[in-house]
Amino acid sequence: MRDLLGQVLDLLPGQPVALARIIDRTGAGPRDTGAAMAITADRRVIGSLSGGCVESAVVTTAGQVLLDGHASTERFAAADEFTVGLPCGGEIEVFVERLDHSDLPLLRDLHTALTAHQPVAYATTLESTPERKLLHPGRIEPWRDLDQDAAALLTAGHSGLIGAQDCTPAAATRPRTFVQVFRSPARMILAGANDYTRALTVAATQLGYHVTVVDARETFTTPARFPAADDVVVDWPHRYLTAEHRAGRIDNRTVICVLTHDPKFDIPTLTTALTLPAIAFLGALGSRRAHTDRTHRLHELGLPDTEISRIRSPLGLDLAAHTPEETAISILAQILADRTGATARPLYTTDGPIHRP
To answer: How high is the mean pLDDT of the chain?
Structure first.
């Protein structure tokens, strides 16, 4: 949508436009969620959704949407000789809505935020007559019981669907809504190339993190061993952190986990991480004995207790996790609880709303 927004703004003062976006995708597909295509009344097409696989069907739907003003949702699965679909075997859901001059103020505000490289989310209820709202970090107002879920997506930095299905009673107050987020995903940097790291990359990627695995041991640090990771870097972790900080690629959403079990990696990495001005979470895997040894070594380097106490170690919640996959869930649960200030207690032992404000 970012690429065609300027052209849509040029068209809207004089004519309505149908906007089609991929709001959900399963399996392989030529375009990601959020990919957009605009269609005018004279069937002029801007952008694409699938490189030609479903565009003709979407243009037909867009014509009806422009005519009656009612938005439409369509799902396209794998193609066969009788149906329009995706030859790659995936499945996409497409939402088509009508935009006109009344939408210009909101879309201009979105364009201004994108031009200034500001993080922003554009939320659209998937109703026959959609409601639209811009969401900015740190100033999200109550909105149809959707604001907390939308804020979580904006914090994580990835688009997604929230709200209830149309067939549920909650749909009246929490309609199914597509939140398109325009900001880089939150980062997770994992120091150490081992089985626990591999499991954590898989689980963290599913939560929307951009995951980097970094280790100085070239033999172990390969993309083949970590297929779910976004980046696999052969370097000393502390040196990598310093370079990423200087490049401005570490911010207050960044999670850093040290999983190496080796003082020659652990101590320099933790020392460097503690000097970073703002990160979301710093954890170190290992036993209580290992953390006691780390604490002693960090004291010898002159770090005060107030700084060392920022390290979450032993890392993870008490779930009796043993396997790498169980440990990954334990670690991510702690990161989520730490991010929101939640208790991490079983819900049946707590009072009040399940979803925290």
So the answer is: 90
